[in-house]
Amino acid sequence: MILMVTWMGVLSVLCVGILWFKIQTPRMAYVRSAVLIEKFKGMQDAQALYQKKLSGLQSDMDLRKAGIEQDIQQFEQEARSLSAQEREIRAASIRNQQTTLVSYEEQATEKAKEGEKIIRGAFNQINSLVEQYAKEKGYDLILGTTQDGSVLYGNQAIDITDEVVIYLNQVYK
Fold this sequence. Notes:
Layout: H1 2-24, E1 28-32, H2 33-39, H3 41-78, H4 84-137, E2 141-145, H5 161-172
Parallel strand pairs: 1-2
Helix pairs in contact: 2-5, 3-4, 4-5
């Protein structure tokens, strides 16, 4: 009888422990971060805007550099036939163009940094929307897989990437 009571006590404690563990087990999932970034319309828009800014700046800088290079070549070809004063004026003009180009490159670098802020803003938006999604769906933890291997394995059953992409794009509209 004492043995039976002891076993029933052990079973009761075990059942309560299992129940407590089930209740206290955090709800976790993971997302494939690269897919999330690639398919989030907010990131696509940010990248398109960033590329537009950069391509315009790059093509303008390329044109300016080509113009300076052409002026230098022409100057080198004509230098012997120019007077000393004409050579000095043309050389000064080329130096001025080069100085202007350096200044323009600095401005372009600043504009590129502004574009990077746009991309960073899209990343911040992803993070806050994933947090919002987790709270709405009752997740305690959502991990992100990366190529660096922060999550080496995840069962497909807890991969919520597609659900989160749909959610992000619905909220983004």
